[in-house]
Amino acid sequence: GAGVSQSPSNKVTEKGKDVELRCDPISGHTALYWYRQSLGQGLEFLIYFQGNSAPDKSGLPSDRFSAERTGGSVSTLTIQRTQQEDSAVYLCASSITPYYEQYFGPGTRLTVT
Amino acid sequence: AQKVTQAQTEISVVEKEDVTLDCVYETRDTTYYLFWYKQPPSGELVFLIRRNSFDEQNEISGRYSWNFQKSTSSFNFTITASQVVDSAVYFCALSEPEALGKETSGSRLTFGEGTQLTVNP
Q1: Which of A31, A104, A106 has the CB atom closest to B107's CB atom?
Q2: I need a surface site. Which of A12, A54, A108, B23 has the fewest CB within 10 A?
């Protein structure tokens, strides 16, 4: 079956611009997660959705970062006024329920110039 | 404090050698979950195994095996008769349902720094 998909696969943006990253989880998966991977910081948790609610947003690095999930499915991660330190690979994952294995998408590579 | 430690940053072996990747974790929870993921050069994280804290039975899946020891807080991963296709970065991860309240953070994964495994022909 279809796995987790993310778009775009690559995004180059200028410092100060806003970007939106999209995640389509595996159908039927109630839990959705965003992580980011960068050379200096490894794999970091950003936010967790159960259904359309985000019980845990504690990993978002600043108020420039926000995310939403609609219809218990698609999620969008928005970064406002991008900074160079936002450059990373943003990974989305989903699991059928919390605590079960998370399946990851291919990621969006964000480069802020 | 580092919750998941993968002390081996890089390992290089010759094909057909056995190799063990170490993972040591730290938690105060009695219920927790441990995972291993593989990240090949293509970049996508691939799920390998999930283990809950109440199941210390070792697991074998083909050439892969996992040794979970609560007494030493370790969850080590062994690849038997390694192959070139095993070359990847391997991550160990921890999920702690009780850490911040089961309703909120229980699901998040805390990853180790990863071990880059290179299998040479």
Answers
A1: A31
A2: A12
Instruction: Give the Cα separation of A85 and A10 in Å (integer).
Output: 16
The whole-angstrom separation of Cα A46 and Cα A33 is 7
The per-residue pLDDT string of chain A (113 residues; one tens digit each, 9 = 90 and over) reads 589 999 999 999 999 999 999 999 999 999 999 999 998 778 999 999 999 999 889 899 999 999 999 998 999 999 999 999 999 999 999 999 888 899 999 999 999 99
Contact A107 B108 (CB under 8 A): no
Q: What is the pLDDT of residue A39?
A: 83
Q: Which position has the token pair 């430690």?
A: B5
The B-side interface with A (CB below 8 A) comprises 33, 35, 37, 43-47, 50, 91, 93, 95, 97, 100, 103-114
Q: Do residues A82 and A18 lie in contact, with contact meaning Cβ atoms separated by under 8 Å?
A: yes
Q: Which residue on chain A is closest to B40 by alpha carbon?
A: A106
Instruction: Please report the beta strands in chain A, taking only residues with DSSP state E, as ranges in sequence order.
Output: 5-7, 10-13, 19-24, 31-38, 42-50, 53-56, 65-69, 75-79, 88-95, 103-104, 108-112
- Looking at CA atoms only, how far is residue A113 from chain B in angstroms? 22
Tens of pLDDT along chain B (121 residues) come to 569 999 999 999 999 999 999 999 999 888 899 999 999 999 999 999 999 999 888 889 999 999 999 999 999 999 999 999 999 999 999 998 766 555 555 578 999 999 999 999 9
Chain B environment of A53 (Cβ under 8 Å): none
